[in-house]
Structure prediction request, 187 residues.
Amino acid sequence: MNNILALPPSASMPAKVVIERRVRAGADVAFAQWAERFTASASRARGYEGASVLSASTSARFILLRFATPDDLRTWQGSFEHAFLMREAAASSEPGGMSQLQSGLETWFTLPDMPTPSLPPPKWKMALLTWLCLLPMVIALGYAFEPLNLPRLVGTALSTAIPVSMLTWVVMPRLTRALYRWLYKGR
Prediction:
């Protein structure tokens, strides 16, 4: 079928699902068009928070979707449009390995070109590494913005948006790669 894991029945935290598809030879353009329609459909659903489509190899593609709650994701996955699009995906791709549902920080600790163990790193490791990366950035930005006398809301918005962006696209991918064995030890 579509290899999307079932959602936990009761969770109020954001839900993220990672869907792997293997693109058929010569179907790159058709798959890219399908992925655009698929993520556009998700973007119209209640609770949608974002999507990414990543290439891991010449054929492997990962679609990451984020929703405010598991119920929001479950509602979209149960829609006619979602079912139609998943059937349509078969024309240009086939399901990859088991897709994953993630509902916490673990999405920062996965890499598309590295195997993802069935269990995420222990929460204490994810929290510790996130805090150790976030703290110096927030402190440095606080000092950098202080002389500018920005309004409190603007300074706070900048001193949180910049580190979150840095963590998501720069810091965590590199740290996850460097600390992969420690993060997933025993997993």
